[in-house]
């Protein structure tokens, strides 16, 4: 009997202690993990790019046959093509390329450092991550220190929501006091903005927004859901996310243009930026219609394996198993979301390009281009789409003194395309070079970045990063 009892105790200890040891080792290893093939930031170089056409995204016009002088990572001067310079200034022949500001994707979910590398190959030089985890603060610091080359990272806090619809990757708050405490904590921790979901109680949301405003911390929130008839607490938000939530909230799943017009009138008074995120609903629609045949055509080799599995289990699988009736409904809603977006644009609502990359097999950079094409399909002129990916994000982030235009004095985050993007944003499929902080990335360099981006972090690193997030949020409670 004593031997059997000791055996039972040892077995139970093994069942409890061993997983704790494995989890702890995984967490620690994930924090220390650092890929050995991240691209390097090159020393600043001075050079001119000659024979290019500048895309003026503010005016929606071309300035032809120009030359850009790049010094210390900024555009030092713009002059007519062929302007002479001293022998100490290297010259690059732009060969008639079209130059526009680097793109910003204002709604992504980043799960791997290599996604920030991959973004550059699509001309995406800045992203706004909208569900913060501890790894994001580490990666942002590494980028700011110049330890490796990738798209600049703006990261929101862990997402805040009410108790009814929250999941494991979100934090639940139920009282105004909790809301104020979370905002204060997130400011101390160094997050760039607060991310709020759509189901916070009105008094909780009001307290969150008010305290964030007092501390100068921006807030991005899912678009209003049912029960949020009073939009005044949303005044001054950095942005509202997802036209899908407009359809499912204020329109209550109805294809009601009169109701939409009334809502847009109210929204204009709030004067907030809106991020449609058409690409993510486009993906779930195609998943429901074409199932694995659609997935097979995607560049999934660039996705982090652990978080792709997690996303499959809790999101993608639902749509891969959708029946014909659900697929037909998704297509109808999808097309109406395009209509909502067009009406927002016509009403003068300021739109932002945001793809929701990281969901539904959506690959960094590629999803940004998809979002831009969908905005054009919705009826936005190419010039408006380009503004929504360049100047308007810079204004929303408060960095338009340095970014958002091809102009003297701006930071040299630039994209060169073979075709004219003012004629069709699909010209971004023909990128000839990307410039990040003055660093020239031609075809050879972009190919190297893409090859590096295929080598994502191992499965156990993703699991460790999730465990790190869950652990730290658990200590906050």
From TrEMBL:
Residue intervals of the Amidohydrolase-related domain:
201-440
In the record, which residues are listed under signal peptide?
A: none
Q: Name one Pfam family in it.
A: Amidohydro_1
Select a single GO molecular function from the record's annotations and give it: hydrolase activity, acting on carbon-nitrogen (but not peptide) bonds
The cross-references to InterPro entries, in alphabetical order and at most eight, read:
Amidohydro-rel, Metal-dep_hydrolase_composite, Metal_Hydrolase, Metallo-dep_Hydrolase
PANTHER family assigned to the protein according to its UniProt record, in alphabetical order: ALPHA-D-RIBOSE 1-METHYLPHOSPHONATE 5-TRIPHOSPHATE DIPHOSPHATASE
Q: What is this protein called?
A: Amidohydrolase
Supply the source organism for this entry: Simiduia agarivorans (strain DSM 21679 / JCM 13881 / BCRC 17597 / SA1)
